[in-house]
Amino acid sequence: MILLLSCLLLISITQGFNGPTTRPSPTVDIGKIPIVLPGSGKYVYTVTDKNFTDISTADLVGEGPLFIEFYTQWCGHCKQLAPIWQKVSSELRGRVRVGAMDISENPLTMEQLSVTAFPTIMYIVRNRVYTYPPSRARSLTGLKQFALGGFNEVDWVELGKPPKRDSSSGTATILFRIRRMIRVTLFFWTKATFASVITFAVGCIFGGITTVVMVKAAGNQHIAELEDELIDRLNAVEEWEDSKDRRKDSGDSSSINSSSRSNRPLIVPPSKNSAEREKEQMSVTNKKRKNKNKNKNKNKSKSKNKKEQ
Known about the structure:
alpha/beta, Glutaredoxin, 6-stranded mixed beta sheet, 8 helices, 6 strands, about 60% helix
């Protein structure tokens, strides 16, 4: 695919350009051309999801049929059709109601009518939907002719009922947007196959390169984290081995000191309790001796007193 793109680029460069080399001067003053937005107009009905059912079925109660355009603000063909659509609304006034709906803001009607291309023009009468053929030119004459009877030349489908939106959650809106993306993708795939293939190929290449780079970066980060964790564990193991060696060395020195102490004579110092006991015993014996001496002295004095008497 890259080789094909490079070949196309080379061919476009090598081929000569035979067109004008200077920009022609404009024949119309662009500043004086009024800008007409899609869906605007004095006699154009603004249709939304809320009022689409009432407006599309108003012909059943005496109103005229509905001739409606589905557009988006970013669509170039819709912008080209905008002034023509205003003229159609003014010339069909009183016979056909002309309306317009921004389909990007009204997804329910888009799903109901299966609108996938922009602009899409439909004629609705008696709950029947007639689609303006995309192959026809969107001219003022062609649109008026279709609205005034030319719609009978094409097939019609039933209007049906609009899909219900779940107001409690956005699931229905999300599903609708996914379906719309798929429909738009298929539309462009069928209408511009070559451009779609090139876009898809370029997207796949860039997506693949981005994925490889991101995966590689994530892998490198994971490897770096594993290396840091391994280094931390190795440091923890080294610290544990160092502490083990220090304990072993301290154990050897304590055993040597204990063996040298065992060779010395064992001298047990007297405990404080035994010394206190000896002091108490000495004090008790001294008291007893003093008491005996006192008693002896008393007895001697008594005996002397008796003899004297």
